[in-house]
Amino acid sequence: MVTVLAQLPVQTPDVNWTGLLPVLLPAAGALVLLIARSLVPSRLMPAVLDAVWTFAVAVAGLVSVAVLWQRDADVSAFGRELVMDRLALFVTAVILGAVALAAPTLPRYCKRVGVASAELCVLILLAAAGAVVMAGAADLIVLFLGLETMSIAAYVMAALNLRRLESLEAGLKYFVLGAFSTAFLLFGIALVYGATGTTNLDGIGDYLDTYIVLRDGMLLAGLAMLLVGLGFKVAAAPFHTWAPDVYVGAPTPVTALMASAVKAAGFAALIRVFVEALGVRADDWRPAVFALACATLAVGSVLAAVQSDAKRILAYSSVSHAGFILLGVQAASDSGVASVMFYLAAYAVIAVGSFTVVGVLSGQDDDRTGLDTLAGLGARRPALALGLTILLLAQAGVPFTSGFVAKFSVIAAAVEARSYWLAVVAMVSAVVAAFAYLRVVVAMYFRDSGDEAETVAEASKPAIGLGAGAVIVAAVLLTVAMGIVPGVLESLASTAAGL
Amino acid sequence: MGSFASTSFPAALTVLVLVPVAGALVLLAMPRTRPDLFKPVALVASTVSAVLAVWVLAEFDAGSAAIFQYWQQYEWISGWGISWQVGVDGLSLFLVVMTALIFPLAIVGVDAEHSPKAYYAWMLVLEAGCLGTFVALDLIMFFVFFEIVLVPMYFLIGGWGHGRRAYAATKFFLFTMFGSALMLVAIVALAFLHSSGNGGDVTFDLVTIANNQLLATNTARWLFLAFALAFAVKVPLFPVHTWLPDAHTNAPTAGSVILAAVMLKLGTYGLVRFGLYLFPEASVYFAPLMITLGVIGIIYGAIAAAMQRDLKRLVAYSSVAHLGFIVIGTFALNTEGLTGGVLQMVNHGVSTGALFLLVGMIYERRHTREISELGGLQKPAPLLAAVFMVVMLSSVGLPGLNGFVGELLVLLGAFNAHRWWAVVAAAGVILAAVYLLWAYQRVFHGPASGANAEMPDLRWREGLVMAPFIAAIVFMGVYPKPVIERVEPAVDAIIAHVEDNVAGFAEPVADVHPSVSLEDLSRSTDETDHNGGSEHDGGGG
Questions:
Q1: What ipTM did this prediction achieve?
Q2: CA–CA separation, A111 vs A201, rounded Å?
Q3: Range of the domain at B330
Q4: What's the total number of domains in chain B?
Q5: How many CB pairs under 8 A join A and B?
Q6: pLDDT digits (tens, 9 = 90+) for A204-223
Q7: Helices of type H across A397-419
Q8: Which residue of B has its CA nearest to A484?
Q9: B79, B144, B173 ranked by CB distance to A438: nearest
Q10: Which residues are bridge partners to B138 per DSSP?
Q11: What CA–CA distances, in Å, run from B319 to A282, B264, B368, B420, B421?
């Protein structure tokens, strides 16, 4: 028996190490950091090194992405289980870019709030590795692996502020609901496998191209479950209910990453599964995504408008942005994919920037995020207030910011796909969401400082810190630059979408 | 329209738009320790734009006013067919000149009450936005400028306003943004349908799209409605005007001036350039609706103005009435009406801008705008009263002043197109005389008591600011020919464009007794003024 087995050639897929670099770098970076922290005494290794290392690893990952981008051919690893094509590389760049952008804020934040920075940095890198796997997944199983790696790291990160009850609540809530939605995803994968006989995304596409599935109940059920599972990850209504609580409860830099990197990975998966693999069945899923987008836009913007907490406003606005991005998915076209790419990149920068401002202001326990704490910020910290204002206006879609171009691109994709009413719903909800952002601006600039606001103003002239300051400046400059000269990013996004 | 002329300084318009932006950036970079320099910098930047605009006016070829001059195009976002494309023709020329001239006057005339750096920076951004909207010939470029003006105005109202400023600013922002939200969808839809109609690349080029009328009738009508909603909010037309009184009343003086003089014109200008020109058939189809709304606005605005106790709110409601005239002139769809409409855009900008400046001066001295608390101001401030008188009469439409020319042409055009509506609208002229003269009487006549008796007169700087307004009012009233001969070719081209593209449409012109209608209307205007004059005399005695 043993000899028989020994004579069989063992078929291992070829491993393309270069192609794997964007995954390997953050994963290995996380392990190195973990080991170093456990072995090296902390007096020899100041806490700031954690964030520096995270930043360096993310930048190295970005360099590897740039190198791979230059190659014309799609780079695949493990057979065709993981494909680092232009789409994957673009999303990877967004993910690692968000990590690199958020990292400089960590040292001061962790020190102030009392979050263990080594654990946080390790988890961030692990989550990033999982997110990159999701972006490059060419197989539903690989997609699932990446999603779980990312999610489990994210669950822990959400609960990392041990002194704050809301943080623990966020972790628990995220975990329970996340696990529940993962079950949907897994069941969906099983059903699609049952209907098509493969979990490989190309294989599913080929199968559906070649054969007409006559009894497609199983396929449609699987498709619906996949949509639920992924809809949960991108916080699309009605699967968004976890998002506000988790966003508010989680440590603010983690929230920034959930709004940017985690969301980007989720949308990459949506595009891979629905637009690419199940593109043939677009007529089946487009109405569902249409409804999902409408609900997400309405829920996100309306509920954002009635909040009285800045972080919660940003959390709900993140839901409404997911609705906008769904417009691009719903278009089910190359230009739709390109618009999703553009939006993800623009929003990642805006989200990290906005949440960083909130994090700077959030005080000792990371819970001072009410609109009152912003009162009079325009007078106390004019530069910070201006930065947040620009980022909020970008979220509202004001011209000459990346937010406008992003909204324009998804609207254009929706109109091109003849989804006029969806475009109209999106624009109207943008107005409602604008009200939410204006409330923040009003609080910062126009609120006549009463006695209460006066004492708050006296108490806190928050120290911004070099790292967070650099992040905010970078985010604002990028946002404005992408708004005035969007051509560069637009052509990259188009290339990523295969246009 | 449709072909382009080149000039010796083709980048004039681009520079015109960018100079205020540069000024705002310089202001941002300036140290906080030199607050005395902020105003001069702002003034220099806006004056450079003003000089350029006047140069453009001087070099403008009146003979070919129907085509875009100083035309320039750069690629902006080539992947989506969006370009930076600017040009002026007879329609936009005077709006550009007026905008560029009013900003320096508003900057000189009104000091920032606090935080001068931010105040002047926002003013300059606002100027760039307004100028950009008037010169843009690319639909997306137009949209981004149309939309960006909200931001500086929002901050001016919210940061430097009075009363319920945060409420007014937010309401202003959301109303206008809601209007333009659907316009963006319509713009994109228009471009895609146009490109799929002719099989070419997607383009947002206004002239190309307007000259290839490829849309199905129904589609065009829907798109027109989306555009019209955006402009109707901006104009503002009844019933989406409710943001205007709040915004005007609570805005700082300069904000009100710009809002009335320039920003409302973005709406009326849009109706002509992006309504009539892009959607001729839909414009004809919806003309009765638009005229009805305009007439309602005239009567409603006049009645509401007459009822106001706040002087600034009164002027704000008078804007609703005046803008109604512009809309009925536009949708009369004949040369007289549209020429009158374009003239009235400029006239209203000059006279209402001046009115708001004067109200601001009174407020600055008396710290109240309640008409009942003012009175007899003529005695302590005769010069102010005189200037107010001239400006107010121009707003009423007294012959010999600028308002008369525009209103007469509007009514003439409307009379030929929709006779009975014109009759009703003419009643609005009388009402304007009623509320403005009544307000003048209550504020300036009668015995002056208390603080009113000690109110200082115009300072030399204020006089200097008002002088150009008075000059424009008188010049355009006495000798409007240079203006009309530059506006009219462009108007003719638009009307011809409508006629070419709408089957069975002929320009509504006077049919039976043209001279009778002209006489009637001018007589009715004369009577109004006569009545108004006697009332004024009575009050003064």
A1: 0.89
A2: 44
A3: 286-532
A4: 1
A5: 86
A6: 999 998 988 888 899 999 99
A7: 402-416
A8: B76
A9: B173
A10: B205
A11: 52, 9, 21, 23, 19
